[in-house]
Amino acid sequence: MGIITISRGSYSRGMEIAQKLSEKLGYECISREILLKASEDFNVPEVKIFHAIQDAPSVLDRLKHGKKKYMAFIREAFLEHIQKDNIIYHGFAGHYFTKGLPNILKVRITANLEYRINIVMKRDNVSKEKAREILTKIDEERGKWSTYLYGIDTKSAELYDIVLHIDCLEVNDTADMLFNLAKRSCFQTTPESKRKLKDMLIAAKAMNAAMVHLKPFFDSGDIELKGDFILGTVAGDLHDIGKNIVRMVLTGSGWNVIDLGSDVKPDKFVNTLKEYPNAYVGMSALLTTTMMQMETTTKAIKEVFPETKIFVGGAPLSQDFSDKIGADGYFPDPNKFAKFLTSIS
């Protein structure tokens, strides 16, 4: 019993591999069904849901947080569907939606550009130059999409348990490899992973319930973009409900929140700051065993960006702890923190 997400580059035969693997394992294979469920559950036209995961964000979208809103809908539909286990999901964002969730087999299927060009030429009956143009545009759009929503490059191998180049592999061979990997004990569902998955679904539902009330402000444009805020739960800590509440409040207050997820290592914060050098940084920890990672991360950030303001939050923390590690403030209340950020911006 388990859950598998397959991230597939365009024209890399990922769908065929997912379907073949589902036959071997006896798992349900899903993709577009999640978009349909999100469309039905939240009464949003499917075309809007589709474009939320297909197109790069426009300037207007950044101001109204449109894609993030629709992605939150898709995430809830996805997390609710995989509660029943024995699922293979192939498509956009599966590895993002399950980040921090243990026992998930995360797969990336890719292929060299020339291999993909040949597939496009045959499938669409176009020239080599036109095929290259099509693929270049798709890759650029997806790169902008993932960077904007999650601050992550989908091509990064660290996101996955295994990356397979399909150029010299047949679909059946690839499915056989993944079948054997999926049977390993580390990719089997456990009581702990089930509890974590339920927690993630509860957090997603809470986020969307709040987004319904915030929707009129987003649509009217009354909330102006105030700046960038990088947010993450520190390395070793998989708890993210508190972090997600902070993200919701800051987003509603007009901040572009770059959510790095949970179990975020110091270099991830630093590298994201290189992309958003004027951003504030927020770190969360729920465990006394992981809160000391905040000191390590704070030092790593301050060494490269000494002027960056860093704020911390979490049940075991205090202002004294914030002062001790060199952070710039401790805020247990997300609403008061949002007001404070506005006052210093």
State the low-pLDDT regions, or none. Answer: 59-64
Helical run tally: 15
Tell me the overall shape: globular
Fraction of residues in H or I helices: 40-55%
**CATH homologous superfamily label of the largest domain:** P-loop containing nucleotide triphosphate hydrolases
Quaternary organization: single chain
Briefly note the structural class of the backbone: alpha/beta
Strand order of the largest sheet: 2-3-1-4-5
| CA-CA gap between termini | 49 Å
Number of strands: 9
Percent in strands:
5-15%
H/E series, N to C? Answer: EHEHHHHEHEHHEHHEHEHEHEHH
Sheet with the most strands, sense and barrel status: 5 strands, parallel
Task: Please give the domain count.
Answer: 2
